[in-house]
Write a structure and sequence with these properties.
about 65% helix, elongated
Protein backbone atom coordinates (compact mmCIF):
# COMPACT_ATOMS: atom_id res chain seq x y z
CA UNK A 1 0.00 0.00 0.00
CA UNK A 2 1.18 3.59 -0.63
CA UNK A 3 2.72 5.43 2.32
CA UNK A 4 4.55 8.70 2.84
CA UNK A 5 8.31 9.00 2.61
CA UNK A 6 10.64 10.26 5.35
CA UNK A 7 13.48 10.66 2.83
CA UNK A 8 14.42 14.35 2.84
CA UNK A 9 16.08 14.05 -0.57
CA UNK A 10 12.65 13.44 -2.11
CA UNK A 11 10.58 15.87 -0.07
CA UNK A 12 10.16 18.36 -2.92
CA UNK A 13 9.94 15.78 -5.73
CA UNK A 14 6.90 13.79 -6.92
CA UNK A 15 7.17 10.35 -5.37
CA UNK A 16 5.25 7.50 -3.78
CA UNK A 17 6.09 4.69 -1.38
CA UNK A 18 4.57 1.25 -1.88
CA UNK A 19 4.98 -1.74 0.44
CA UNK A 20 4.54 -5.02 -1.41
CA UNK A 21 5.62 -8.57 -0.58
CA UNK A 22 7.88 -7.34 2.21
CA UNK A 23 9.68 -4.88 -0.08
CA UNK A 24 9.54 -1.11 0.28
CA UNK A 25 9.46 0.55 -3.16
CA UNK A 26 10.28 4.24 -3.38
CA UNK A 27 8.95 5.45 -6.72
CA UNK A 28 10.63 8.70 -7.76
CA UNK A 29 8.81 10.56 -10.53
CA UNK A 30 11.29 12.57 -12.55
CA UNK A 31 11.22 15.09 -15.36
CA UNK A 32 13.45 13.77 -18.14
CA UNK A 33 14.72 17.29 -18.89
CA UNK A 34 15.24 18.65 -15.36
CA UNK A 35 18.47 19.34 -13.52
CA UNK A 36 16.51 19.13 -10.25
CA UNK A 37 15.56 15.52 -11.07
CA UNK A 38 19.20 14.61 -11.61
CA UNK A 39 20.13 16.16 -8.26
CA UNK A 40 17.27 14.31 -6.52
CA UNK A 41 18.39 10.96 -7.94
CA UNK A 42 22.00 11.51 -6.94
CA UNK A 43 21.02 12.63 -3.43
CA UNK A 44 18.67 9.67 -2.93
CA UNK A 45 21.34 7.14 -3.93
CA UNK A 46 23.96 8.93 -1.83
CA UNK A 47 21.71 8.53 1.24
CA UNK A 48 22.68 4.86 1.33
CA UNK A 49 19.22 3.67 2.33
CA UNK A 50 18.52 1.63 -0.83
CA UNK A 51 19.90 -1.82 -1.59
CA UNK A 52 18.67 -1.93 -5.22
CA UNK A 53 18.02 0.63 -7.97
CA UNK A 54 15.42 0.31 -10.74
CA UNK A 55 15.23 2.56 -13.79
CA UNK A 56 12.74 3.21 -16.61
CA UNK A 57 15.11 1.75 -19.21
CA UNK A 58 15.30 -1.35 -21.36
CA UNK A 59 18.58 -3.01 -22.32
CA UNK A 60 18.86 -1.11 -25.60
CA UNK A 61 18.27 2.35 -24.12
CA UNK A 62 20.54 1.62 -21.16
CA UNK A 63 23.33 0.68 -23.55
CA UNK A 64 22.76 3.82 -25.63
CA UNK A 65 22.97 6.02 -22.52
CA UNK A 66 26.00 4.39 -20.93
CA UNK A 67 28.03 3.18 -23.95
CA UNK A 68 29.18 6.06 -26.20
CA UNK A 69 30.23 3.59 -28.91
CA UNK A 70 26.94 1.66 -29.00
CA UNK A 71 25.90 3.11 -32.36
CA UNK A 72 29.29 2.29 -33.85
CA UNK A 73 28.67 -1.41 -33.19
CA UNK A 74 25.48 -1.68 -35.26
CA UNK A 75 25.55 -4.13 -38.18
CA UNK A 76 23.80 -2.25 -40.98
CA UNK A 77 23.51 -5.23 -43.35
CA UNK A 78 22.01 -7.39 -40.61
CA UNK A 79 19.48 -4.64 -39.86
CA UNK A 80 18.42 -4.58 -43.53
CA UNK A 81 18.37 -8.37 -43.94
CA UNK A 82 16.20 -8.84 -40.85
CA UNK A 83 13.75 -6.19 -41.99
CA UNK A 84 14.47 -3.97 -38.99
CA UNK A 85 15.51 -0.88 -40.93
CA UNK A 86 12.16 0.82 -40.39
CA UNK A 87 12.30 0.19 -36.64
CA UNK A 88 15.87 1.51 -36.38
CA UNK A 89 14.87 4.56 -38.43
CA UNK A 90 12.02 5.18 -35.96
CA UNK A 91 14.47 4.96 -33.06
CA UNK A 92 16.80 7.42 -34.77
CA UNK A 93 13.84 9.76 -35.30
CA UNK A 94 13.03 9.66 -31.60
CA UNK A 95 16.68 10.25 -30.78
CA UNK A 96 16.70 13.31 -33.09
CA UNK A 97 13.77 14.78 -31.14
CA UNK A 98 15.59 14.18 -27.87
CA UNK A 99 18.76 15.84 -29.16
CA UNK A 100 16.82 19.00 -30.03
CA UNK A 101 15.53 19.05 -26.47
CA UNK A 102 19.06 18.67 -25.11
CA UNK A 103 20.31 21.57 -27.25
CA UNK A 104 17.48 23.86 -26.12
CA UNK A 105 17.53 23.00 -22.42
CA UNK A 106 21.16 22.17 -21.78
CA UNK A 107 20.13 18.86 -20.18
CA UNK A 108 20.36 15.55 -21.99
CA UNK A 109 16.95 13.83 -21.94
CA UNK A 110 17.16 10.82 -19.66
CA UNK A 111 20.21 12.14 -17.82
CA UNK A 112 18.57 11.34 -14.48
CA UNK A 113 18.13 7.71 -15.59
CA UNK A 114 21.79 7.61 -16.57
CA UNK A 115 22.71 9.09 -13.17
CA UNK A 116 20.70 6.35 -11.44
CA UNK A 117 22.39 3.63 -13.50
CA UNK A 118 25.85 5.04 -12.91
CA UNK A 119 25.10 5.52 -9.20
CA UNK A 120 24.10 1.87 -8.85
CA UNK A 121 27.32 0.78 -10.56
CA UNK A 122 29.49 3.03 -8.39
CA UNK A 123 27.92 1.69 -5.18
CA UNK A 124 27.84 -1.90 -6.44
CA UNK A 125 24.05 -2.08 -6.12
CA UNK A 126 21.79 -4.33 -8.22
CA UNK A 127 20.34 -2.43 -11.19
CA UNK A 128 16.91 -3.43 -12.50
CA UNK A 129 16.07 -2.42 -16.07
CA UNK A 130 12.29 -2.49 -15.79
CA UNK A 131 11.01 -0.85 -18.98
CA UNK A 132 9.80 -2.78 -22.01
CA UNK A 133 11.93 -2.84 -25.15
CA UNK A 134 11.09 0.29 -27.14
CA UNK A 135 10.83 -1.77 -30.34
CA UNK A 136 8.11 -3.94 -28.79
CA UNK A 137 6.26 -0.85 -27.63
CA UNK A 138 6.36 0.67 -31.11
CA UNK A 139 5.23 -2.60 -32.71
CA UNK A 140 2.31 -3.00 -30.29
CA UNK A 141 1.31 0.62 -30.87
CA UNK A 142 1.52 0.08 -34.64
CA UNK A 143 -0.61 -3.08 -34.51
CA UNK A 144 -3.40 -1.22 -32.71
CA UNK A 145 -3.67 1.61 -35.23
CA UNK A 146 -5.68 1.74 -38.42
CA UNK A 147 -4.49 3.06 -41.78
CA UNK A 148 -4.87 6.76 -40.92
CA UNK A 149 -3.42 6.29 -37.47
CA UNK A 150 -0.35 4.60 -38.92
CA UNK A 151 -0.04 7.38 -41.49
CA UNK A 152 -0.06 10.01 -38.74
CA UNK A 153 2.47 8.04 -36.73
CA UNK A 154 4.83 7.75 -39.71
CA UNK A 155 4.39 11.45 -40.50
CA UNK A 156 5.28 12.36 -36.94
CA UNK A 157 8.37 10.16 -36.94
CA UNK A 158 9.43 11.51 -40.35
CA UNK A 159 9.12 15.04 -38.99
CA UNK A 160 11.37 14.11 -36.06
CA UNK A 161 13.81 12.56 -38.52
CA UNK A 162 14.18 15.45 -40.94
CA UNK A 163 12.80 18.63 -39.37
CA UNK A 164 15.36 20.69 -37.50
CA UNK A 165 13.06 23.14 -35.76
CA UNK A 166 12.86 24.06 -32.08
CA UNK A 167 10.59 22.11 -29.76
CA UNK A 168 7.62 24.26 -28.72
CA UNK A 169 7.48 25.61 -25.17
CA UNK A 170 4.18 23.87 -24.35
CA UNK A 171 5.69 20.53 -25.43
CA UNK A 172 8.61 21.09 -23.07
CA UNK A 173 6.30 21.92 -20.16
CA UNK A 174 4.23 18.81 -20.91
CA UNK A 175 7.39 16.70 -21.02
CA UNK A 176 8.41 17.89 -17.55
CA UNK A 177 5.36 16.14 -16.15
CA UNK A 178 4.99 13.33 -18.68
CA UNK A 179 6.84 10.63 -20.55
CA UNK A 180 9.65 11.05 -23.07
CA UNK A 181 8.33 8.49 -25.54
CA UNK A 182 4.78 9.85 -25.34
CA UNK A 183 5.93 13.42 -25.91
CA UNK A 184 7.82 12.35 -29.04
CA UNK A 185 4.48 11.71 -30.73
CA UNK A 186 3.05 15.11 -29.70
CA UNK A 187 -0.72 15.55 -29.44
CA UNK A 188 -1.27 12.38 -31.46
CA UNK A 189 -0.56 10.28 -28.34
CA UNK A 190 -3.15 12.07 -26.23
CA UNK A 191 -5.78 11.87 -28.99
CA UNK A 192 -5.23 8.19 -29.80
CA UNK A 193 -6.33 5.68 -27.12
CA UNK A 194 -4.51 2.77 -28.82
CA UNK A 195 -1.21 4.65 -28.79
CA UNK A 196 -1.65 5.80 -25.20
CA UNK A 197 -2.44 2.24 -24.11
CA UNK A 198 0.76 0.83 -25.65
CA UNK A 199 3.06 3.73 -24.77
CA UNK A 200 1.89 4.52 -21.22
CA UNK A 201 -0.70 2.19 -19.65
CA UNK A 202 0.89 -1.10 -20.73
CA UNK A 203 4.32 0.08 -19.67
CA UNK A 204 2.97 0.98 -16.20
CA UNK A 205 1.78 -2.61 -15.75
CA UNK A 206 4.97 -3.98 -17.31
CA UNK A 207 7.28 -2.01 -15.02
CA UNK A 208 5.25 -2.98 -11.94
CA UNK A 209 5.53 -6.65 -12.91
CA UNK A 210 9.28 -6.34 -13.56
CA UNK A 211 9.78 -4.72 -10.15
CA UNK A 212 7.94 -7.57 -8.46
CA UNK A 213 9.78 -10.24 -10.48
CA UNK A 214 13.21 -8.77 -9.73
CA UNK A 215 12.38 -8.41 -6.05
CA UNK A 216 11.11 -11.98 -5.75
CA UNK A 217 14.34 -13.23 -7.32
CA UNK A 218 16.86 -11.10 -5.40
CA UNK A 219 15.00 -10.31 -2.14
CA UNK A 220 15.93 -6.62 -1.64
CA UNK A 221 14.27 -4.71 1.21
CA UNK A 222 14.53 -1.15 -0.11
CA UNK A 223 14.22 -0.38 -3.85
CA UNK A 224 14.49 3.05 -5.45
CA UNK A 225 12.64 3.11 -8.79
CA UNK A 226 13.39 6.11 -11.02
CA UNK A 227 10.63 6.65 -13.59
CA UNK A 228 9.14 9.52 -15.59
CA UNK A 229 6.57 11.54 -13.66
CA UNK A 230 3.93 10.53 -16.21
CA UNK A 231 4.18 6.93 -14.96
CA UNK A 232 4.04 7.64 -11.23
CA UNK A 233 0.27 7.31 -10.73
CA UNK A 234 -0.22 4.31 -13.02
CA UNK A 235 2.84 2.48 -11.69
CA UNK A 236 1.74 3.04 -8.09
CA UNK A 237 -1.70 1.60 -8.86
CA UNK A 238 -0.32 -1.38 -10.78
CA UNK A 239 2.24 -2.18 -8.10
CA UNK A 240 -0.34 -1.89 -5.32
CA UNK A 241 -3.26 -3.70 -6.94
CA UNK A 242 -1.66 -6.13 -9.42
CA UNK A 243 -2.45 -9.75 -8.53
CA UNK A 244 -1.39 -11.65 -11.65
CA UNK A 245 1.86 -13.58 -11.79
CA UNK A 246 4.54 -11.00 -12.75
CA UNK A 247 6.24 -13.35 -15.20
CA UNK A 248 2.98 -13.96 -17.00
CA UNK A 249 2.27 -10.22 -17.18
CA UNK A 250 5.62 -9.40 -18.82
CA UNK A 251 5.35 -12.38 -21.19
CA UNK A 252 1.91 -11.24 -22.32
CA UNK A 253 2.94 -7.61 -22.77
CA UNK A 254 6.10 -8.60 -24.66
CA UNK A 255 4.08 -10.30 -27.38
CA UNK A 256 3.41 -8.45 -30.62
CA UNK A 257 -0.12 -9.24 -31.85
CA UNK A 258 0.07 -11.26 -35.04
CA UNK A 259 -1.87 -10.00 -37.96
CA UNK A 260 -3.63 -12.27 -40.36
CA UNK A 261 -1.24 -14.79 -41.92
CA UNK A 262 -3.03 -14.16 -45.19
CA UNK A 263 -1.98 -10.75 -46.62
CA UNK A 264 -5.52 -9.81 -47.55
CA UNK A 265 -4.78 -6.18 -48.41
CA UNK A 266 -1.93 -7.16 -50.71
CA UNK A 267 -4.02 -9.90 -52.31
CA UNK A 268 -6.95 -7.55 -52.88
CA UNK A 269 -4.69 -4.87 -54.35
CA UNK A 270 -2.85 -7.36 -56.56
CA UNK A 271 -6.13 -8.86 -57.78
CA UNK A 272 -7.55 -5.42 -58.56
CA UNK A 273 -4.37 -4.34 -60.37
CA UNK A 274 -4.01 -7.52 -62.44
CA UNK A 275 -7.75 -7.44 -63.08
CA UNK A 276 -7.45 -3.89 -64.45
CA UNK A 277 -4.64 -4.99 -66.75
CA UNK A 278 -6.68 -7.99 -67.91
CA UNK A 279 -9.75 -5.82 -68.49
CA UNK A 280 -7.64 -3.50 -70.61
CA UNK A 281 -6.27 -6.34 -72.75
CA UNK A 282 -9.71 -7.95 -73.11
CA UNK A 283 -11.73 -4.86 -73.99
CA UNK A 284 -9.12 -2.59 -75.53
CA UNK A 285 -6.85 -5.09 -77.17
CA UNK A 286 -3.11 -5.44 -76.87
CA UNK A 287 -2.41 -1.73 -77.36
CA UNK A 288 -4.56 -0.57 -74.40
CA UNK A 289 -3.45 -3.41 -72.14
CA UNK A 290 0.21 -2.83 -72.88
CA UNK A 291 -0.27 0.91 -72.38
CA UNK A 292 -1.79 0.36 -68.92
CA UNK A 293 1.08 -1.93 -67.87
CA UNK A 294 3.67 0.48 -69.25
CA UNK A 295 2.08 3.46 -67.50
CA UNK A 296 2.08 1.60 -64.18
CA UNK A 297 5.72 0.56 -64.54
CA UNK A 298 6.93 3.99 -65.65
CA UNK A 299 5.02 6.03 -63.06
CA UNK A 300 5.95 3.85 -60.07
CA UNK A 301 9.56 3.49 -61.25
CA UNK A 302 9.89 7.26 -61.53
CA UNK A 303 8.43 7.70 -58.03
CA UNK A 304 10.86 5.30 -56.39
CA UNK A 305 13.80 6.65 -58.38
CA UNK A 306 12.98 10.24 -57.44
CA UNK A 307 12.78 9.30 -53.77
CA UNK A 308 16.20 7.64 -53.88
CA UNK A 309 17.62 10.55 -55.89
CA UNK A 310 16.34 13.04 -53.30
CA UNK A 311 18.16 10.97 -50.69
CA UNK A 312 21.40 11.46 -52.61
CA UNK A 313 21.51 7.78 -53.56
CA UNK A 314 24.17 6.22 -55.75
CA UNK A 315 23.03 5.87 -59.42
CA UNK A 316 22.72 2.10 -58.92
CA UNK A 317 20.67 2.68 -55.75
CA UNK A 318 18.35 4.88 -57.80
CA UNK A 319 18.15 2.20 -60.48
CA UNK A 320 17.39 -0.46 -57.84
CA UNK A 321 14.53 1.64 -56.47
CA UNK A 322 13.16 2.11 -59.99
CA UNK A 323 13.27 -1.61 -60.78
CA UNK A 324 11.67 -2.64 -57.47
CA UNK A 325 8.96 0.04 -57.35
CA UNK A 326 6.47 -1.52 -59.84
CA UNK A 327 6.33 -4.76 -57.82
CA UNK A 328 6.57 -3.24 -54.32
CA UNK A 329 2.76 -2.90 -53.93
CA UNK A 330 2.43 -6.57 -54.92
CA UNK A 331 5.30 -7.86 -52.77
CA UNK A 332 5.67 -5.48 -49.77
CA UNK A 333 8.54 -7.56 -48.33
CA UNK A 334 10.62 -6.51 -51.36
CA UNK A 335 10.10 -2.78 -50.98
CA UNK A 336 11.86 -0.26 -53.18
CA UNK A 337 13.28 1.37 -50.05
CA UNK A 338 14.82 -1.88 -48.82
CA UNK A 339 16.38 -2.65 -52.21
CA UNK A 340 17.71 0.89 -52.57
CA UNK A 341 19.04 0.94 -49.01
CA UNK A 342 20.83 -2.40 -49.42
CA UNK A 343 22.52 -1.27 -52.66
CA UNK A 344 23.47 2.06 -51.08
CA UNK A 345 25.01 0.34 -48.07
CA UNK A 346 26.88 -2.09 -50.32
CA UNK A 347 28.32 0.49 -52.71
CA UNK A 348 28.97 3.23 -50.17
CA UNK A 349 29.89 1.22 -47.11
CA UNK A 350 29.71 3.38 -43.98
CA UNK A 351 33.10 3.87 -42.37
CA UNK A 352 33.82 3.43 -38.68
CA UNK A 353 34.04 7.21 -38.45
CA UNK A 354 30.53 7.50 -39.92
CA UNK A 355 29.31 5.28 -37.11
CA UNK A 356 31.09 7.32 -34.48
CA UNK A 357 29.72 10.57 -35.95
CA UNK A 358 26.16 9.28 -36.31
CA UNK A 359 24.87 10.89 -33.13
CA UNK A 360 26.24 14.35 -33.97
CA UNK A 361 25.64 14.23 -37.73
CA UNK A 362 21.95 13.42 -37.31
CA UNK A 363 21.45 16.51 -35.17
CA UNK A 364 21.14 18.52 -38.42
CA UNK A 365 19.21 17.89 -41.62
CA UNK A 366 22.37 18.15 -43.76
CA UNK A 367 24.09 15.65 -41.53
CA UNK A 368 21.61 12.92 -42.54
CA UNK A 369 22.82 13.24 -46.14
CA UNK A 370 26.50 13.69 -45.24
CA UNK A 371 26.79 10.62 -43.04
CA UNK A 372 26.84 7.41 -45.12
CA UNK A 373 25.20 5.34 -42.40
CA UNK A 374 22.36 7.82 -41.92
CA UNK A 375 21.89 8.25 -45.68
CA UNK A 376 20.98 4.57 -45.98
CA UNK A 377 17.96 5.23 -43.76
CA UNK A 378 17.09 8.37 -45.73
CA UNK A 379 17.18 6.22 -48.88
CA UNK A 380 14.85 3.69 -47.31
CA UNK A 381 12.32 6.30 -46.19
CA UNK A 382 12.29 8.49 -49.32
CA UNK A 383 12.34 5.64 -51.85
CA UNK A 384 9.35 4.01 -50.14
CA UNK A 385 7.58 7.36 -49.89
CA UNK A 386 8.16 8.07 -53.59
CA UNK A 387 6.86 4.64 -54.57
CA UNK A 388 3.75 5.01 -52.39
CA UNK A 389 2.84 8.38 -53.86
CA UNK A 390 3.50 7.13 -57.38
CA UNK A 391 1.33 4.04 -56.81
CA UNK A 392 -1.65 6.27 -55.97
CA UNK A 393 -1.01 8.37 -59.08
CA UNK A 394 -0.64 5.27 -61.26
CA UNK A 395 -3.80 3.78 -59.79
CA UNK A 396 -5.77 6.94 -60.54
CA UNK A 397 -4.39 6.86 -64.07
CA UNK A 398 -5.62 3.27 -64.51
CA UNK A 399 -9.10 4.15 -63.31
CA UNK A 400 -9.22 7.18 -65.61
CA UNK A 401 -8.22 5.20 -68.69
CA UNK A 402 -10.63 2.38 -67.96
CA UNK A 403 -13.50 4.76 -67.14
Amino acid sequence: MPTTSPDGALSDQPHAIVMRDGVRYTLLGTAHVSRASIDAVEAAIASGRYDAIAVELDTQRHRALTDPDALAKLDLFQIIREGKIGLVAANLALAAYQRRLAEQLGVEPGAELKAAAMGAKQRDLPLYLIDRDVGTTLKRAWSGLGFWGRSKLMAGLAASLFVDEQVEEHDIEKLKQGDLLESSFGEFAAETPQLFEAVIAERDRYMAAKLRACSLAEKPREVLAVVGAGHLKGLTTALTEGRDDPGQVTTTLDKVPEGSKVPWLTLIFATALLGAFGWGFYHGGFNLGAKLVLDWVVITAIGGALGSALAGGHPLSILGAAVASPITPLIPALSSGMVSAFIEAWLRKPTYQDMLNLRTDTSTVKGWWRNRFARVFVNFVLANTGTSIAAWIAGANLIHKLG
